[in-house]
Write a structure and sequence with these properties.
By secondary structure, the protein is an alpha/beta fold. The protein has 13 helices and 25 strands. The strands form five sheets. Strands 1, 2, 7, 8, 9, 10, 16 and 17 form an eight-stranded mixed β-sheet that branches. Helix 1 runs parallel beside helix 4 and helix 7 runs antiparallel to helix 8. The longest helix has 30 residues. It is globular. The chain starts with a strand and ends with a helix. The relative contact order is 0.13.
């Protein structure tokens, strides 16, 4: 047995979408990170497959959006059947047309492919995942956390300034710190799930069968693979469902679909899934945090579980980096204050959707399944932090479209030489951003002292088409002013995770900085 010791600034336990998002965010900020996972290697299980618009914006900021869009699919029609008879077609399961301020509609992409993209990005940033590394113990000291890790050739003692448990619904980290999952288990809502290969079905569509007699069967073609995701509801009156297997899946397809010429060839990942809806009573104990499924377990309705975890990581990453760089440690208290209410709302919403979906399915109606992935709430775009200690409210008109605490929307402007520049291009990176809007009458900002003492990018957005100079964007048609609801000179301070910290009507930038960060 080998006993080794080492130190890192942040130890991330779990290499799923949440842990990898956090690792990429911290690595690009220059933080020393280690990522551990108990598995032998990358998972092939397609547990999640929907990336919502707000999570896509996070992936844009991390520099991987082009890869996601290249491998994913946006428009996947759903074909509903009664046995082998087509009832409807071309009802899109992930409708999402871009709108002003919203660059991406929902994208279908299997979880294993998303994880591969994030692992590649982590490698580019100098990091890696350490497989076959299982956490077996955790002790907190005054200035660090000592973690015992079982590796192939013995135990390793890892000392970390902070530990983040991203290790799923059965989180070892959560158990070690004494945080409890509280919630409900819905025994009547059980599903057979699996990744299968199918011959004879059109891969351009999702195929769905619903009936009061047999329940639900769905076959979804996972983009950029030859795999289909198999989902079938377990009858509520079945006390001991059969274990998932290829033979069982073939029998279910014959009973519920029976489409001639279609065969299920083989199966990879298989699961019997029972819906649980739970929330951790604490997201933080000392220097240890929980994120993703370690903090909240969702029903699959609305496709929000993986997306909520990605946003957990995005919220926590910049705060950990700031505190490690010398910011007030109280900043870390805002993680739970901001993210736990979001998870509570998402859990309530997804549970309501699940019950509605199952009721509709019992009547052979699939309409709620289509609505569940397209409304404002599921996109993540309406999530905000208006009540956060980091948000400074200022008197604004009731009609103000973008208020402190809201997500900062994207808009296309142009630079003084005529090139299109998205505001997300300006926001991308680990810095704070100060947008100073004017309608062409204001002079360039005077130099100011920076009370933030953090990386800050200042950009003037003007309707003056003749404006020039560094840090100037021209808004020739006034779209940016319209989207941000600017009717006079205004400064808008945006956090590193893309939320508005403060806005104030002023010709100068320093009032908004003092407003947000003065003691």
């Amino acid at each position: 047995m080998v006993d080794r010791s080492s130190f890192t600034e942040v130890l991330i336990v779990g290499a799923g979408p949440t842990g990898l998002t956090l690792a990429c965010d911290l690595s690009r900020r220059g933080i020393d990170v280690r990522v551990l996972d108990r598995l032998d290697g990358p998972s092939t299980a397609s547990r999640a497959k929907t990336i919502q618009p707000r999570a896509l914006e996070v992936l844009d900021d991390l520099g991987v959006i082009d890869r996601v869009l290249r491998l994913g699919a946006i428009h996947v029609p759903t074909r509903h059947y009664d046995r082998d008879r087509v009832l409807s077609e071309a009802v899109e399961a992930a409708v999402g047309m871009t709108a002003p301020g919203v660059p991406y509609p929902p994208v279908w992409l299997s979880q294993p492919l998303l994880e591969a993209i994030l692992r590649d990005r982590l490698t580019e940033l100098g990091g890696r995942v350490e497989w076959r590394s299982a956490v077996t113990g955790l002790v907190q000291n005054s200035d660090s956390v000592e973690v015992t890790v079982r590796v192939t050739d013995g135990d390793e003692r890892v000392r970390a300034r902070y530990v983040v448990g991203c290790d799923g619904g059965r989180s070892v980290v959560r158990q070690q710190i004494g945080s409890r999952l509280e919630g409900d288990s819905y025994g009547a809502h059980r599903w057979w799930l699996g990744d299968v290969r199918v011959e004879g079905l059109d891969r351009r569509c999702q195929h769905v069968w619903m009936s009061p007699q047999h329940g639900i069967l769905s076959l979804f073609p996972l983009p950029s693979t030859d795999i289909w995701q198999f989902q079938a509801s377990v009858p509520a009156d079945d006390p001991e469902p059969d274990r998932p297997a290829l033979g069982l899946f073939r029998r279910i397809f014959a009973e519920r679909a029976g489409v001639p010429g279609v065969t299920l060839e083989d199966a990879g990942w298989l699961s019997l899934y029972q819906v649980n809806v739970c929330l951790a009573d604490r997201y933080r104990v000392g220097s240890v945090f929980l994120a993703g499924d370690a903090a909240h377990v969702h029903s699959p309705a609305g496709g929000q579980g993986m997306n909520t975890g990605i946003q957990d990581a995005y919220n926590l990453g910049w705060k950990l980096a700031a505190v490690l760089g010398g910011a007030d440690p109280d900043l870390l208290d805002t993680y739970e204050l901001e993210r736990r209410p979001v998870a509570r709302a998402v859990l309530d919403d997804s549970t309501t959707r699940l019950h509605q979906f199952m009721r509709d399915a019992a009547n052979g109606d699939g309409s709620s399944a289509q609505r569940g992935l397209t409304d404002d709430f599921t996109t993540g775009l309406t999530i905000g932090y208006p009540d956060s200690p980091l948000t400074r409210s200022t008197p604004e008109p009731e009609h103000a479209g973008v208020r402190p605490g809201d997500r900062a929307p994207d808009v296309v402007c142009r630079d003084p030489v005529g090139h299109d520049i998205r505001l997300f291009d300006v926001l991308r990176g680990p810095h704070w951003t100060l947008l100073t809007f004017d309608r062409g009458q204001s002079a360039a900002l005077d130099p100011i002292d920076d009370p933030l003492a953090v990386p800050l990018r200042t950009v003037r957005i003007t309707t003056d088409t003749a404006a020039s100079g560094a840090g100037v964007l021209i808004d020739p048609n006034g779209q940016a002013h319209q989207v941000y609801d600017i009717d006079e000179d205004t400064a808008v301070l945006i956090r590193p995770d893309g939320y508005v910290a403060a806005r104030i009507r002023s010709r100068r930038a320093d009032p908004v900085l003092r407003l947000n960060f003065s003691s």
